[in-house]
Write a structure and sequence with these properties.
Length: 334
């Protein structure tokens, strides 16, 4: 099975080629245009996808040394994501599949983040728990098999990636601020400014409260000292990052106890965070868990993970027809 996969749900245009389950190429073009706007502008994202999709696909085929006529199926992200952005990838995939007379495979972006763990060793064994943390989602997923997953906890408001990005904006860092907070946090004192963690019932999360408390804290400090942010940037980043990670890990621990599971995986853009990677490894060592952390290139959006999910779907004979359309808020059950 030779697959071409396309990812276009947000601000990365990506294409990958997978041959019999082995990833041969994974080309990612990150849209830089959003930086000056402080967040992803949906219309600009769609236009940028339209511009880069053909060169990105060509590069992916070239790097994998695969001719388009050798392809057996085309996979694409159906959702969740920005509708206009999804439309570009879906339409392209449909047109190419039609012209080559090969089937389509629609992929759920969040399931693909989880399945990124199967691109290379070490691979978790089913069932396992996955904390999927991205710019749009924060989920605790009980992964029964590649195609059978259940969300057992999720955010009731903002995603943790959003909390990272909005904090970054408040302290004058460009979008996406998560990686910049991570970098600055390394030089700061995480215990300097304690922020309230709040507590949601069960396995659910909430990040809107902490976002507001960071805003009020900064407003109050800046009123007293206009140079407060400038003088304390690293400590602010380290303190915020520590709080966000603790909120995540409290629920991870609770979910591990509840499920009796001994394997924990992290996935999604925020799983690239060095603080989270270190803390979950420390926690795992203490609790006797096996911890699975993806390579950096498979944390943030990439078509390699879409190809991996599509590979599992192809093995199960799950293809879709030309009548498929993107779904901006696709859930696991759709
Ligand atoms: O999975 P992803 O690429 O896109 C979505 O599906 O949303 O995740 C993007 C999110 C952004 O919020 C970005 O700031 C965050 O992942 N992110 C990070 C780091 N790298 C990316 N957050 C914290 N630390 C990082 N190193
Ligand atoms: Zn994503």
């Amino acid at each position: 099975m030779i697959l071409l996969a396309i990812e276009s749900s947000c601000d990365e245009t990506s294409a990958a080629v997978m041959v019999h389950g082995e990833l041969r190429s994974n080309i990612i073009s990150t849209q830089l245009i959003h930086t000056e706007w402080g967040g992803v502008v949906p219309e600009l994202a769609s236009r940028a996808h339209q511009k880069s999709i053909i060169p990105v696909v060509q590069e992916a085929l070239q790097k994998a040394n695969i001719n388009k006529n050798d392809l057996n199926a085309i996979a694409f992200t159906r959702g969740p994501g920005l509708l206009g952005a999804l439309m570009i990838g879906t339409s392209f995939a449909k047109a190419l599949a039609l012209s080559l007379d090969i089937p389509l495979i629609d992929v759920n972006h969040m399931q693909a983040h989880v399945l990124a763990h199967f691109i290379e060793e070490p691979r978790p064994a089913f069932p396992f728990l996955c904390l999927t943390v991205s710019g749009g989602h924060t989920q605790l997923v009980w992964v029964k098999s590649a195609l059978d997953m259940e969300i057992i906890g999720e955010t009731m408001d903002d995603a943790v990636g959003e909390a990272f990005d909005k904090t970054a904006k408040l302290i004058g860092l460009p979008y996406p601020g998560g990686p910049l907070i991570d970098k600055l946090a390394k030089e700061g004192n995480p215990d300097r400014f304690p922020f309230p963690m709040g507590e949601m019932p069960g396995l659910n999360f909430s990040f809107s409260g902490i976002k507001t408390s960071i805003l009020y804290f900064l407003q109050k400090q800046v009123a007293m000292n206009p140079k407060f942010i400038e003088e304390n940037k690293a400590d602010i980043c380290a303190s915020v990052q520590k709080t966000l990670i603790e909120i995540l890990l409290r629920k991870v621990k609770k979910a591990m106890v509840q499920t009796g599971c001994k394997q924990i995986a992290i996935a999604g853009g925020v799983s690239a965070n060095s603080g989270l990677r270190t803390r979950i490894q420390e926690m795992g060592a203490k609790q006797g868990w096996e911890v699975y952390i993806p390579a950096f290139s498979y944390c943030t959006d990439n078509a390699g993970m879409i190809a991996m999910a599509a590979h599992f779907k192809a093995e199960a004979g799950e293809f879709c027809g030309q009548d498929v359309s993107p779904l901006a808020s696709l859930s696991f059950l759709a």
